[in-house]
Design a protein that fits this description.
CATH architecture: Alpha-Beta Complex
Oligomer: single chain
Order of helices and strands: HEHHEHHEEEH
CATH topology: Maf protein
Number of helices: 6
CATH class: Alpha Beta
CATH superfamily: CinA-like
Strand content: 15-25%
Number of strands: 5
Largest sheet: 5 strands, mixed
Length: 166
């Protein structure tokens, strides 16, 4: 499935709900793909590109010790959902390029989802250049979001979006 197809699938699964994004390592790429869906103005509230730690903490309310963690991804998703009054949110935080100062290896990405108050996160590890890591993280964020929406829409449903990394 291409990213555009995944974005359309997410739009269908939103079922009238609004979505917001909080992105660090993907720098707005998830919101960009969602914005290209024909009906995007009906569901996409907006997004925050929170590349610096201070923005994650002050704007999105991240309290996690490390901004590169599952807890931070969850707090980013909850924070942007509250900030933009959206019942659905997705977040990305990770390392696309050089090793992070805490030793987190390049290609480590945490993706958080918040769907109607249910928050979750997953850690993924991708290989490649920083651009390739960002592209893989964008796609995985759409996959994780589709899966979370499928689970919240119909408990027995699963997203038919292919294999997940992680």
């Amino acid at each position: 499935m291409q990213d555009e197809d995944l974005a359309n699938r997410v739009a269908e699964l939103l079922n009238g709900r609004a979505i917001a994004t909080a992105e660090s390592c993907t720098a707005g790429r998830v919101a960009e793909v969602l914005a290209c869906v024909d009906s995007a103005s009906e569901f996409l509230r907006g997004g925050v590109v929170a590349y610096q730690e201070a923005v994650k903490r002050t704007m999105l309310g991240v309290t996690a010790k490390s901004v590169l963690s599952a807890k931070a991804a969850e707090e980013m998703a909850n924070g942007v959902a509250e900030l933009l009054d959206a019942p659905v949110a997705v977040s990305t935080t990770g390392v696309a390029g050089d090793q992070f100062e805490d030793g987190t290896p390049p290609g480590t990405v945490y993706i958080g989802t918040s769907v109607d108050g249910a928050v979750a996160s997953k850690v993924h590890r991708f290989d490649g250049t920083p651009q390739e890591v960002c592209d893989q993280a964008r796609r995985q964020a759409l996959l994780d979001l589709a899966a979370a929406l499928s689970n919240r829409t119909s408990p027995s449903a699963t997203a038919d979006a292919g294999p997940l990394h992680g």
